Amino acid sequence: MEVVKGPDSVLEERFCQMAEAHQTALLRLCFVLLKDHALAEDAVQETFLKAYRAYAAYRGDCGEKTWLTRIAVNVCRDIKRRAWFRLVDRRVTLEQLPEPAVPFEEKDDSLFQAILQLPAREREALILYYYQDLSMAEISQALGTPLSTVGSRLKRARKRLKAMLEGGEEE
Fold first, then answer.
1. CA dihedral defined by 74, 77, 83, 84, rounded to 10 degrees?
2. Residue 168's pLDDT band (cuts 50, 70, 90)
3. CATH no. of 9-165
4. Please, are residues 105 and 120 in contact by the beta-carbon 8 Å criterion?
């Protein structure tokens, strides 16, 4: 018996391919932003649900990864605004992260812990730039901020990280 596909089957198939390609990267992003694996999984699921609902209207003005990243960042921000979120201890260790594409080294743990201590906006920009391999223009689109703001956040984040990792005080 042959399965009959509806008129949206091509659209659904393309969406499934996109979800498969970006699921791990979004999970890692959401985990770093939320500092909780279960919440990160929920955020990714909500991201894909919102993206699926809006996929027919997706114009392709930016890349799929940028589009999904923007949705994921906004979903994470919504979750963090919830009152109960502030009442839970969110300290994260490297072992709690989803499996990385490249194995971590010992020095990565101190870097990761320092990144988690950055202010949220600087942390978002840094993670999107270095860990998600987005360009500054794509980050600007994903966060809905001007390009110059992204550059400023990255510069401040690098400066703070350098101070933290060298054991000095921030200037």
1. 100
2. low
3. 1.20.140.160
4. no
